[in-house]
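FYI - complex with heme C, inputs then prediction.
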Amino acid sequence: MKHFTLFLVAVATMAGVVAQMIPAPGHADGAPAPFVTEIPQGYRDWRWISSAHEAGKLNSLGAVLGNDVAYNAFRNGKLPYPDGTIIAALHYRNVPSDENNKVFGQAQSFVPGAPTNIQFMVKDSKKYAATGGWGFGHFADGKPGDAAFMKSCFPCHEKAKATDLVFTRYAP
Ligand code: HEC
């Protein structure tokens, strides 16, 4: 009986050790999943993939750009996106252009106004394994979003699972 009790203690101890070794998804050691904290260099010179206008409260005009790896993957419809892919979404206020409207003779022209934020998705399947292999980045006035805010990105982008978490389609 004594041996059996010892055996149970040993099994329970092992189970505890194993449980501690298995990280909860997205939280290897209870820390928040890593996200992008530095603006990728040279993003403003990358190639255009597509644009998107959000109405409502956002009222934004956005341009989606990609580095060479991203551009080629988008263009060739390559899924999943390879490591090294970086997608940038540059967001601006969507404002009417008085200058253009004067020329048209009516209100119909909207152009990018003040920049609001830049967002990035950086593919690194190891580093960002907890968030589907994508590191999310958000910068307003050059400052990164805080950890709590950055938690919102992955759950929504997961809805685009069929296209490797990317919503934007290549505009030919
Ligand atoms: C409620 C859902 C939702 C949340 C939350 C969200 N996104 Fe998105 N994101 C979208 C949709 C839809 C698009 C495509 C339309 C557009 O570009 O406006 C998009 C586009 C993007 C793109 C262009 C690539 C692509 O997937 O089309 C990037 C980069 C991006 N989001 C980054 C982020 C970051 C960083 C965060 C967190 C701070 C974030 N997103 C939070 C829904 C979301």
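The first strand starts at residue 47 and ends at 54. The first helix runs from residue 2 to 21.
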